[in-house]
């Protein structure tokens, strides 16, 4: 059964040509095609020349967006003792130890980021099957297993985001809001591109970047010219 396409989306698609746009032009078009009645999220979808079934071709890291994400990020922290007070003082929304682990096991997932101190990871490991598929499992590489709770909480609240390539080698990342200026979206997209390049897996051979598309969360996909993005030099703020 063919899904009916709304007139709003048909009109938005009509504005997008079948070509790769210069990075800034693509982002201006993203804003123009964000016609929903709410502030849509800006999304990037990057296809890489990797096969994540091999450990040396996996990509999992974090990016800090200079212009923020435009989202309110709820941070949960699993720790114990004095570290609980430290996490609360640093602005964590949910803090606990074994009690919080039990709540999460029971289905409580009212957070976007989960941070844990290393001493709690043996107990947190039991949450892997629940949190792993959702991208919420704490990991040292993702900056979410740490003793520096104040620093980690501040960074994630300010716009730091963890991401990973899915099983097909595609990275899906939210990098702002459609209400951002095109220039601010470009700064964030450039930060993402540089992070992906900087963390190229050792096993990645041949052409690393295959395609880049951006879109508003309810809008059409817009192809970005990869070279225009990678070659772009932004002035220091």
Spans of 5+ residues with little confidence (pLDDT < 50)?
Answer: none
Number of strands: 9
- Helices, by number, come to 9
CATH architecture of the largest domain: 2-Layer Sandwich
Strand order of the largest sheet: 7-1-8-9
Using only CA atoms, what is the Rg? 19 Å
* SS-based class: alpha/beta
Distance between the termini: 50 Å
Major β-sheet annotation: 4 strands, antiparallel
**Average predicted confidence as pLDDT:** 91
CATH class of the largest domain: Alpha Beta
Name the CATH superfamily classification of the largest domain.
Answer: Ribosomal protein L1/L10, rRNA-binding domain
GO biological process, one term: regulation of translation
InterPro entries: Ribosom_uL1_bac-type, Ribosomal_uL1, Ribosomal_uL1-like, Ribosomal_uL1/biogenesis, Ribosomal_uL1_3-a/b-sand, Ribosomal_uL1_CS
Protein name: Large ribosomal subunit protein uL1
GO molecular function, one term: structural constituent of ribosome
């Amino acid at each position: 059964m063919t899904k009916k396409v709304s007139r709003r989306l048909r009109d938005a698609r009509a504005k997008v040509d079948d070509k790769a746009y210069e990075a800034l032009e693509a982002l201006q078009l993203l804003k123009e095609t964000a016609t929903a009645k709410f502030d849509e999220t800006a999304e990037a979808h990057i296809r890489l020349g990797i096969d994540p079934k091999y450990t040396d071709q996996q990509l999992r890291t974090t990016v800090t967006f200079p212009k923020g994400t435009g989202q309110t990020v709820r941070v949960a922290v699993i720790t114990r003792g004095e570290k609980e007070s430290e996490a609360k003082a640093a602005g964590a929304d949910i803090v606990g130890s074994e009690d919080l682990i039990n709540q999460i096991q029971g289905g409580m997932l009212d957070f976007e980021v989960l941070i844990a101190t290393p001493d709690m990871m043996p107990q947190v490991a039991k949450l892997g099957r629940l949190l792993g598929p959702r991208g919420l499992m704490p990991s040292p590489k993702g900056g979410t297993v740490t003793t520096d709770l104040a620093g980690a909480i501040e960074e994630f609240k300010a716009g730091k985001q963890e991401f990973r390539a899915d099983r097909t080698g595609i990275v899906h990342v939210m990098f702002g809001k459609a209400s951002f200026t095109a220039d601010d979206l470009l700064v964030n997209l450039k930060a993402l591109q540089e992070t992906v390049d900087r963390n190229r897996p050792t096993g990645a051979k041949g052409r690393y970047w295959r395609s880049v598309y951006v879109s508003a969360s309810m809008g059409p996909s817009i192809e970005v010219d990869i070279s225009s993005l990678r070659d772009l030099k932004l002035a220091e703020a």
